[in-house]
């Protein structure tokens, strides 16, 4: 077993396990209200019968799993604690592309198990720490756009650097391993491969030229020494979850962008004397995570104090045009974006649901002013609209609060750059770290994974808002997470009002018999912690990916490695489909055009996965059915 302590470096800092707490009836009462066994499903459906069925072991045989009503066309699998991937009987998998694999022939063999990739080749290979991804049909070619969220310098750099770059070339190498890869893929099941040298292949990294639109573009907030017009930012940072537009472009979501900035003005571990407004709420200041600021002035906030305002946005990329300039859409707000889930209002306006993944931050919705239908112009759809923030009430209603100069007292550019402060001003609900949002394709409703929150009910958020338990965040010191779902009034994603319930509250029923056991659809046979990635398939099944504690002990005993489950959102049932190698999180998923192959992201694996020797390599894997049938 290799040293997997290197791998405990996800940007998503989850809770370490806690001591079991005694039963507490107060929690049960709070939680009963939130998961509402009566709920808006109008019965015991979501948390009653499905869970009871699950507990009997009915799903333990293939024929039973395929029984009418469960919706699961596979036999659920057990947890695992090893350095391998497991999928159900009748399915197979293989790595499609690993960190360091060539996208162009010239980089063939660029990766060495001992030394990784050279600086020269670092822009010609697949990036590290894969995350959100989407597959596009480009004139019949299958093209995947996929994020590389961050790097592990202890693995990327020569061992004697001890995880810190020592010159500008090494910084450039780390920058090259992150961002977005656009790559053509071809084949079927076991034969799927990246098409090397495809004219559609592209790497977008921390130095790629971008542009901006929306109310913040060209304002003083985003002017820098090298871009006095404030229109031409470089690079997209910490690309976490994904989204896709209805018109076939990719949305990459900038999450923990703050960590790349630092200052050389004072000692590295101190904050500079004066920080611009908002830096503390966004966690900017002090020492950069990868010492970029030492070798690249753009990341030194004492020299370029506005550079951090140019990151933390949703960025649109055209996968069909490798020469296109990515666009940062400032109308959608600046925060630690997880993903972007696009749908439409009843009258055809564009809706984008977005989470801000930090303890005690908010959930957002953007609504365009213009409408769109197939074949129409997309101009202005992501630059001219209104940003809303979610307020959840304990009575299972909620509303979207508009963030405007009138409601916030802030200028429009200011409230978009500082969306968090604008949300606080209007009284948005502090959440348990909103990760992915997914819109049900067969029903007017959406889901958000609230991954966990060790501060809930204990500490305020970074901006000083109190974070009491309540609404869809019903547990103090919530280390298991939950998934909230909402249904907009009048079945219209444009409505201001909605009703909500919890689809699932994760927990451990073998350790607790209170709220920390989870909702009724959580059983010893399907339990998990820290839901994160969520992707609906075309039939309305919800694929749930976890990024949580994989130590398999204490509160997490019996939960094993991070995993991917499938949820039937009608019955509430949840079944485990995949387990990842020890140390990893599972994040990002898309399907081939024929739905016969699924592509799944394995981020920060441990050991020497998947090669069995040398450095661990984050990878996108392909999963298919042995009988060649479509799934998803
Ligand atoms: Fe990059 Fe919140 O996950
Ligand atoms: Ca992660
Ligand atoms: Ca996470
Ligand atoms: Ca995530």
Side by side, the strands of the main sheet go 12-13-14-15-16-20-19-18-17
Percent in helix: under 10%
Average pLDDT confidence is: 90
Low-pLDDT segments, ≥5 res: 1-31, 36-69
Structural class: mainly beta
Percentage beta strand: 25-35%
Bound molecules: MU-OXO-diiron, calcium ion
Give a written overview of the molecule.
This protein is mainly β and 632 residues long. The protein has one domain (25-255, 312-625): Neuraminidase (6 Propeller). Helix content is 9%, strand content 27%. The chain contains nine helices and 27 strands. The strands form five sheets. It has a nine-stranded antiparallel sheet. Strands 2, 3, 4, 5 and 6 form a five-stranded antiparallel sheet that branches. A hairpin with an 8-residue loop joins strand 19 and strand 20. Residues 1-31 and 36-69 have low confidence and may be disordered. Residues 11-12, 149, 240, 255, 338, 357, 435 line the site of MU-OXO-diiron (FEO). The site of one calcium ion (CA) has 5 residues, from loops.
Keywords:
single chain; 632 residues; mainly beta; Neuraminidase; 5-stranded antiparallel sheet; 9 helices; 9% helix; 27% strand; binds MU-OXO-diiron; binds calcium ion
């Amino acid at each position: 077993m290799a040293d997997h302590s290197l791998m405990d470096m996800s940007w998503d800092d989850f809770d370490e396990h806690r001591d079991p707490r005694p039963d507490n009836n107060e929690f049960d009462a709070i939680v009963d209200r939130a998961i509402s066994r009566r709920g808006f499903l109008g019965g015991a459906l979501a948390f009653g019968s499905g869970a009871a069925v699950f507990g009997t072991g009915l799903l333990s045989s293939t024929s039973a799993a395929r029984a009418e009503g469960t919706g699961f066309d596979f036999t659920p699998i057990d947890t695992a604690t090893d350095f391998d991937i497991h999928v159900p009987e009748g399915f197979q998998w293989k790595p499609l592309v690993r960190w360091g694999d060539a996208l162009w022939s010239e980089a063939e063999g660029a990766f060495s198990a001992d030394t990784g990739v050279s600086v020269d080749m670092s822009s010609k290979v697949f990036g590290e720490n894969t995350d959100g991804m989407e597959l596009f049909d480009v004139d019949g070619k299958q093209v995947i756009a996929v994020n590389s969220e961050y790097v592990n310098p202890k693995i990327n750099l020569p061992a004697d650097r001890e995880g810190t770059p020592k010159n500008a070339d090494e910084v450039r190498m780390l920058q090259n391993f992150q961002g977005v890869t656009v790559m053509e893929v071809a084949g079927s099941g076991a034969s799927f491969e990246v098409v090397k040298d495809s004219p559609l292949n592209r790497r977008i990294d921390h130095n790629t030229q971008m542009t901006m639109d929306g109310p913040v573009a060209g304002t003083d907030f985003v002017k820098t020494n090298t871009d006095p017009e404030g229109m031409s930012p470089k690079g997209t940072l910490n690309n976490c979850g994904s989204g896709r537009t209805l018109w076939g472009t990719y949305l990459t979501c900038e999450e923990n962008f703050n960590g790349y900035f630092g200052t050389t003005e004072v000692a590295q571990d101190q904050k500079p004397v004066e920080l611009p407004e908002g830096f503390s709420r966004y966690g900017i200041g002090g020492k950069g995570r990868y010492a970029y600021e030492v070798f690249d002035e753009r990341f030194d906030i004492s020299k370029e104090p506005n550079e951090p305002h140019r990151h933390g946005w949703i960025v649109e990329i055209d996968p069909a045009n490798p020469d296109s300039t990515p666009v940062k859409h400032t109308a959608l707000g600046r925060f630690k974006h997880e993903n972007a889930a696009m749908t439409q209002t009843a009258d055809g306006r564009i809706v984008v649901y977005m989470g801000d993944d930090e303890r005690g931050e908010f959930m957002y919705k953007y609504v365009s002013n213009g409408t769109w239908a197939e074949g129409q112009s997309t101009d202005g759809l992501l630059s001219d609209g209104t940003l809303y923030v979610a307020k959840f009430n304990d009575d299972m209603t909620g509303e979207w609060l508009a963030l405007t100069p009138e409601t916030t007292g802030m200028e429009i550019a200011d409230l978009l750059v500082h969306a968090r402060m604008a949300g606080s001003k209007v009284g948005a609900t502090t959440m348990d770290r909103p990760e992915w949002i997914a819109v049900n394709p067969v029903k007017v409703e959406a889901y958000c994974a609230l991954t966990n929150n060790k501060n809930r009910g204990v500490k305020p958020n970074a901006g000083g808002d109190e974070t009491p338990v309540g609404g869809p965040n019903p547990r103090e010191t919530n280390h298991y997470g939950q998934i909230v779902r909402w249904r907009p009034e009048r079945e219209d994603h444009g409505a201001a009002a909605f009703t909500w319930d919890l689809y699932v509250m994760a927990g451990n029923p073998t350790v607790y018999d209170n709220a920390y056991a989870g909702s009724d659809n959580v059983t010893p046979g399907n339990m998990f912690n820290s839901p994160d990635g969520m992707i609906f398939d075309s039939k309305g099944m919800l694929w749930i990916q976890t990024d949580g504690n994989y130590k398999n002990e204490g509160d997490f005993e019996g939960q094993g490695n991070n995993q991917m489950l499938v949820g039937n959102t009608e019955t509430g049932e949840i079944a485990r489909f995949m387990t990842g190698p020890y140390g990893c999180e599972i994040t990002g998923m898309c399907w081939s055009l024929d739905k016969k192959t699924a592509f799944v992201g394995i981020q920060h694996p441990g050991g020497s996965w998947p090669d069995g020797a040398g450095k661990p390599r984050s990878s996108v894997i392909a999963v298919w059915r042995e009988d060649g049938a479509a799934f998803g």
